[in-house]
Specification:
Length: 84
């Protein structure tokens, strides 16, 4: 179950970050650079918190649930569109 949920979240968050990268390409130079920096930082952070191993636990949170707080925040802001 967690594997399926992770796949759905990863696909949705990836699509959102791809959209940010497209916006970056169309933005003025300084804004585009900052958008690319934010997108890259989120991709790196999410990569460190990818579920791994036979039990599919977060690889960054030492044995906690597959969908950790990092993924929960990303899904809340990027998929459910909580406003900052
Ligand atoms: Zn984690």
């Amino acid at each position: 179950m967690d594997e399926i949920l992770y796949g759905v979240l990863a696909e949705g968050v990836g699509r959102y970050l791809d959209g940010v990268d497209r916006l970056a390409a169309a933005a003025p130079e300084a804004a585009g650079a900052e958008l690319r920096r934010l997108s890259a930082a989120w991709r790196a952070l999410l990569g460190l918190h990818r579920p791994a191993g036979t039990r599919h636990r977060c690889s960054g949170c030492a044995g906690r649930a597959a969908i950790c707080t990092v993924w929960r925040v990303a899904s809340a802001y990027f998929l459910r569109r909580i406003r900052a």
